């Protein structure tokens, strides 16, 4: 092994059987106590001098270390011996660690290097001076609502980055893997150990239903785990408890206890976000981190669900003011568009409540640019005819395409409001269809039982 002399800071090499003994430094002749094991303070691994252990888990232990060549502090994640002896995992570990090294985002812990020395496999990462989110929750219990939403927002931004730019899933979202800096910036860590987390099943309280069932998973699975984390931040504990098997069953079949059972100050807009994140079926969740981020931005302005439309209109008025520098024809149209939005919004409420049918006047011929036509076509579709499940899904797809194609449109707040309403409508119609199917099956079973009894 090698260790750093406490007197002259030079590196001393010795045989492993001398660990814990006293030897003479070959540089300064000072009598030095040799570290008691390979990872004790002052032990040296490659370019890194271990300072202290700062974390321990089933998969790896984390040490604060000093990188001699660049004179900086780093976090050294050393794999457990169980994983170090697994050649298949080591291949996955190196592959994933190299991929994570390409991720450069303010809310992701930067990976610097991955290597091996004498059977010790390790990942070198950015050192974050602070605590992980689990430690914060354990110390403070339920966290303030706005603080919790801000942390979730930052992690959603990290997930959006890795999914949009690299088509990667994290696969192990939990509070232990969210680091909080001293200035309350959240950073997502542990992207290089997702294979091990999946293999050792270390995240049962945060695992999504599709992983339990062995089904295909994608970024929506990470969003489910993020929803469990959000719930834990607001309540102080995870929604499901018991043995691992009991927790798995609850993930599949049981709805979490309402947050209102624990505290009364959580805005309904926050609760709606959590309910959507924790939907059992991936199709009922946010389909991407961007959808979650959009709702978070609205929730940060609108404390209550009924205020979301007001926030959307407020954003739209602000956009209109910024557009005043454009030509007068466009400016006139934007004012007309805002008035149309108010009228359509009120009509939408009546339509969804089943009280009226609404039609939309034709668009003026001069308003013929692509963005205007796309927006008004969606408005027509929304307010004409019955809103069946298939039709709602089709219109929702058009709304999502509009949001993607025209992110700077002054109509964006209204289309986001439509998106929320349509998603809730689709979910309700799907559930109604499932209930009808279950009722039909029960009814047919009863008829069959009656027939058998008669015979």
List the helices and strands and how they pair.
Layout lengths: L1 E3 L6 E3 L8 E3 L6 E3 L10 E2 L2 E9 L3 E8 L4 E8 L1 H4 L2 H14 L10 E7 L2 E7 L3 E3 H8 L4 H22 L11 E4 L4 E3 L5 H7 L8 H4 L6 H17 L8 H10 L14 H10 L11 H13 L6 H15 L5 H25 L17 H13 L6 H17 L6 H43 L1
Antiparallel strand pairs: 1-2, 3-4, 5-6, 6-7, 7-8, 8-10, 9-10, 11-12, 12-13
Which characteristics define this entry?
Phosphorylase Kinase, domain 1, 3-stranded antiparallel sheet, 15 helices, 13 strands, 49% helix
Report on this structure.
The protein has 455 residues and is of the alpha+beta class. It has 3 domains: 38-126, Phosphorylase Kinase, domain 1 (2-Layer Sandwich); 130-303, Transferase(Phosphotransferase) domain 1 (Transferase(Phosphotransferase), domain 1), CATH 1.10.510; 319-435, no CATH class. It is 49% helix and 14% strand. The protein contains 15 helices and 13 strands. The chain has helices at 81-84, 87-100, 133-140, 145-166, 194-200, 209-212, 219-235, 244-253, 268-277, 289-301, 308-322, 328-352, 370-382, 389-405, 412-454; strands at 2-4, 11-13, 22-24, 31-33, 44-45, 48-56, 60-67, 72-79, 111-117, 120-126, 130-132, 178-181, 186-188. The strands form 4 sheets. Strands 5-6-7-8-10-9 form a 6-stranded antiparallel β-sheet. Helix 4 (145-166) runs antiparallel to helix 7 (219-235). The longest helix is centred in the last third of the chain and has 43 residues, at 412-454. The termini are far apart. Mean pLDDT is 81; it is low at 322-339 and 349-368.
- Helix vs. strand class: alpha+beta
What's the main sheet like? 6 strands, antiparallel
**Uncertain runs with pLDDT below 50, 5 residues or more?**
322-339, 349-368
Please identify the top-level CATH class of the largest domain. Mainly Alpha
The proportion of strand residues reads 5-15%
Cα-atom Rg, whole angstroms?
A: 28 Å
> Mean of residue pLDDT?
81
Shape: elongated
Number of strands: 13
The CATH topology of the largest domain comes to: Transferase(Phosphotransferase), domain 1
Distance between the termini: 84 Å
What is the CATH superfamily label of the largest domain?
A: Transferase(Phosphotransferase) domain 1
CATH architecture of the largest domain: Orthogonal Bundle
Strand order of the largest sheet: 5-6-7-8-10-9
How many discrete structural domains? Answer: 3
């Amino acid at each position: 092994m090698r260790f750093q002399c406490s007197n002259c800071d030079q590196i001393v090499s010795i045989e492993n059987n001398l660990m814990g003994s006293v030897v003479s430094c070959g540089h300064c002749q000072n009598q030095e106590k040799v570290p008691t094991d390979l990872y004790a303070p002052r032990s040296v691994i490659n370019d890194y001098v271990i300072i202290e252990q700062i974390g321990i888990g089933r998969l790896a232990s984390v040490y604060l270390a000093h990188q001699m060549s660049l004179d900086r502090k780093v976090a050294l994640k050393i794999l457990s011996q169980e994983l170090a002896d697994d050649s298949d995992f080591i291949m996955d570990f190196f592959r994933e660690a190299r991929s994570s090294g390409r991720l450069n985002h303010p809310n992701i812990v930067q990976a610097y290097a991955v290597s091996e020395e004498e059977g010790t496999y390790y990942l070198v990462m950015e050192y974050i001076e602070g605590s992980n989110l689990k430690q914060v929750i354990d110390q403070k219990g339920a966290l303030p609502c706005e603080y919790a939403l801000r942390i979730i927002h930052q992690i959603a931004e990290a997930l959006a980055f890795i999914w949009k730019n690299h088509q990667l899933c994290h696969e192990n979202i939990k509070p232990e893997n969210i680091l909080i800096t001293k200035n309350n910036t959240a950073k997502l860590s542990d992207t290089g150990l997702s294979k091990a987390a999946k293999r050792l099943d270390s995240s049962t309280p945060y695992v999504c239903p599709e992983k339990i069932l062995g089904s295909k998973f994608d970024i929506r699975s990470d969003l489910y785990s993020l929803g469990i984390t959000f719930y834990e931040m607001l309540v102080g504990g995870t929604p499901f408890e018991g043995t691992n098997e009991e927790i798995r069953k609850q993930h599949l079949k049981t709805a979490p206890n309402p947050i209102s059972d624990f505290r009364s100050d959580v805005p309904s807009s926050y609760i709606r976000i959590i309910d959507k994140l924790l939907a059992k079926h991936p199709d009922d969740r946010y389909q991407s981190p961007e959808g979650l981020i959009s709702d978070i931005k609205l929730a940060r302005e609108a404390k209550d669900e009924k205020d979301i439309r007001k926030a959307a209109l407020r954003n739209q008025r602000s956009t209109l003011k910024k557009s005043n520098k454009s030509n007068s024809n466009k400016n006139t149209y934007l004012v007309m568009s805002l008035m149309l939005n108010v009228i359509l919004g009120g009509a939408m409420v009546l339509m969804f409540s089943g009280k009226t049918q609404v039609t939309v006047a034709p668009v003026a011929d001069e308003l013929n640019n692509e963005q205007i036509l796309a927006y008004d076509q969606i408005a027509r579709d929304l307010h004409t005819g019955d809103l069946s499940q298939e039709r709602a899904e089709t219109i929702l797809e058009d709304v999502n395409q509009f949001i993607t194609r025209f992110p700077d449109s002054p109509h964006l707040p209204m289309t986001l409001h439509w998106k929320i309403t349509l998603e809730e409508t689709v979910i309700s119609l799907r559930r109604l269809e499932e209930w009808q199917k279950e009722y039909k099956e029960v009814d047919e079973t009863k008829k069959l039982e009656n027939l058998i009894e008669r015979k």
